[in-house]
Amino acid sequence: MGVECICIFLAFRPRFGLSATGTRQADAPQPMRPSRGFIAEVKADGDRRDAGRGGGMSRKAGMLPHGPVLLALSRESVLRDLIPTAYRGRLARSSHLIDSTFYYNLLDELMMTTLISTIRVEKLFGLYTYDIPTVGQLTNATILYGDNGVGKSTLLRLVFHLLSAADNRSHRTSLYRTDFQRLEVGLSSGVRLTARVLESEPVKLLLLEVLQGEKQLAVWEYRPRNQMPLFDEEIVFEETNERGVIRRLRPARKRELEGVPQGEQAYLDALKNNVPTLFILNADRRLSSDSVPDPSDEMELRRVLRLGEPKSMNEVVVRSREVALSQALNTAATWLSRKAVLGTNQGSMNVHSVYGDVLRRLVSPNPQNLTTVPRPSLPDLLKQLARIDSKSSEHARYELATHLPTNDFRKALSARSKKKTELAAELLQPYINSVEGRLKAIEPVYQLIELFVSMLNALLTDKKVGFKLSQGFTIKNRLGLNLEPSQLSSGEQQLLLLFCYVLTARDSPTVFMIDEPEISLNIKWQRQIVQVLLDITQNASIQFVFASHSMELLAQHRSRVVKLVNNP
Questions:
Q1: Measured distance CA(70)–CA(51) in Å, rounded
Q2: CB of 451 within 8 A of CB of 60?
Q3: Sign of the dihedral through C-alpha 13, 19, 22, 24
Q4: For helices 418-459 and 523-536, what crossing angle results, to 10°?
Q5: Which residues of 191-222 are buried (b: 16+ CB within 10 A; e: fewer)?
Q6: What does the pLDDT read at residue 18?
Q7: Potential cystine with 441: which of 29, 129, 130, 347 (Cβ 3.0-4.6 Å)?
Q8: How far apart are the C-alpha atoms of 349 and 326, rounded to whole Å?
Q9: 2 touches 75 (CB < 8 A)
Q10: Mean pLDDT, to the nearest integer, of 366-375?
Q11: Residue 559 dihedral angles phi and psi, to the nearest 5°
């Protein structure tokens, strides 16, 4: 009996992913959505009948550094190791055809494997214990709601610091200084990150763990360096009795953890290998992430170069926001340029493939053995030329391609002489195929830019954001005058800053934690902000966790609201 096999076209990108056995690996490729249409057809004898249009990409998906890869997995292996539980029954009962809707839903679960599923904090400020959510798991967008002073903003910061691995941004120090007893963040992959207080006196000791189920992947008993005990083997503490203050020594805690990586470097390595990229937008509108340069660094450089030193604290804040937005715009422009280069390279490979095929047919000693390629009809060729004209014009708006007018070609195909028409069609066919291949390769970049620019401009009033590959992003008012980031309102700066980093976050699983998104936003924007962010990140492994009091925002997304309920 042959082995029943599922053949699926997958496109891969680096960073987080699943191996063929379902094991999560730090450098394993990650699947991305193919274009719509059926994915693969399976026969009981294991033969792949047709891979359909699986090699393409969704128009809103991120860009690929490599072409599509054909992955063949036995049905038994898929059911046991790779397919999420919710889909195993459906796949076992499914017909031989795997439809794209099924596949997209499957990838949605696979892409969420490193995002946050649950949060639990115990004795926050010594008062509050929260399970978030109380039932089920967090979705791709969750809005935390609660009274003022119950710890919403603090909770976002705690999660951000717990899941951030950089060793030079005070993440562990911030955890250490916050009053809580225990914090646990669960990821969809099954990995859990915990921080709990082991000792409060005489010197606080924080135990940091990375866990997979009940297995400890790494452990670090943390104190800030200025809080370290005087000796490696002893802790100094004082106690008072009726005779006064007595200083005593006691043995330091020794923890036996055979086979468990311990210490700072082991913990940080485990953290880097298992967590998504984290961003947090605080209520002061400062966006922080290990992957984002600190704008204060550039502020210091400007001061050293005598480019102007702020005169007041308010000016420092304003200047810092302007620098941060300039950095974000440059980062987004560079990211899009890189994707355009990758798309162009893929387009060149497509052209190479087309003409390689033509040459093989010309020089083949046995042309009868070559697969016969059906010649397209004249109406089909005319449609292809019209599509090339239209698509190249669209791409040219962002300098992704040169506009290729095809009027002369279409006239040549409309000649009265049948022989001339057939000759023209024969000559044009390789050219048409190569140009279409080049445009198809760059189309995902175009769709991404078009989506980003159009959604952003739909929110702005009397201003327009544009993009050119050679210039990056530009901002103009309705009179056509160029604007600097400093000339935008605080709400516009906030929106553009966030959108830029959301755009570039598509390369890896990412969580954005946004405190009070309604600040500086008008009522219209408050109603639209969550949905616009979800639209921009469609098909990407990106999650949002908001903390908000805005009734406009809460009313628009009731199903996403999680109320903080104290569970003492």
A1: 9
A2: yes
A3: negative
A4: 140
A5: bbbbbebeeeeeeebbbbbbbeeeebbbbbbb
A6: 35
A7: 347
A8: 35
A9: no
A10: 57
A11: -70, -15
Say whether 144 sits in a helix, a strand or coil. strand
Residue 549 φ then ψ, to 5°: -115, -5
Cα(204)–Cα(200) distance, integer angstroms? 4
CA atoms in the 13 A half-sphere facing the CB of 109: 14
Q: Between vectors from CA 369 to CA 366 and to CA 374, what angle results, nearest 5°?
A: 120
Better pLDDT: 275 or 568:
275
Are the C-beta atoms of residues 270 and 210 closer than 8 Å to each other?
Answer: yes
Coil/strand/helix, residue 307 = coil
Rounded CA Rg of the chain: 29
Residue 311's SS3 state is coil
Which residues are 543's β-sheet partners? 511
- Token pair 């016969």 is found at 372
How would you classify the pairing of strands 542-547 and 510-515? Answer: parallel
Which stretches of 280-312 are DSSP H helices? 295-304
Amino acid making up residue 380: D
How many H helices and E strands in the chain? 14, 23
Sign of the dihedral through C-alpha 431, 436, 439, 441: negative
Ranges of H-type helices in 151-211: 152-162, 171-177
Given this model, what pLDDT does residue 380 score? 85
User: pTM, whole model, 2 decimals?
Assistant: 0.72
Strand boundaries in 274-356, DSSP class E: 277-281, 287-288
Reference 533, options 491, 485, 563, 498; nearest CA is 498
State the DSSP string of 213-282: TTEEEEEEEE--GGG--SSSSEEEEEEEETTEEEEEEEEPP----TT--BSHHHHHHHHHHH--EEEEE-
Q: Hey, is 364 helix, strand or coil?
A: coil
Three-state DSSP class for residue 122: strand
Let me know: does 331 contact 295? Beta carbons within 8 Å. no
Cα(11)–Cα(9) distance, rounded to whole angstroms? Answer: 7
Distance CA 48, CA 286 (A): 52
Give the C-alpha separation, 473 to 483, whole Å: 11
Say whether pLDDT at 169 is over 50. Answer: yes
Residue 251 confidence (pLDDT) above 50 = no
Task: State the average pLDDT for the chain.
Answer: 74
391 vs 61: CA distance, rounded Å: 18
Res 205 pLDDT > 80: yes
Phi/psi at 411 (nearest 5 deg)?
Answer: -65, -40
The SS3 call for residue 446 is helix
First to last CA, the chain: 60
Q: How far is CA 280 from CA 16, 47, 60, 320, 332, in A?
A: 21, 49, 25, 16, 18
Measured CA angle at 491 (ends 327, 299), to 5 deg: 35
Dihedral angle computed from the Cα positions of residues 32, 36, 41 and 46, in that order, rounded to the nearest 10 degrees: -10
* pLDDT recorded at residue 242: 58
Please state which of the ranges 51-65, 344-358, 365-379 shows the lowest mean pLDDT. 51-65
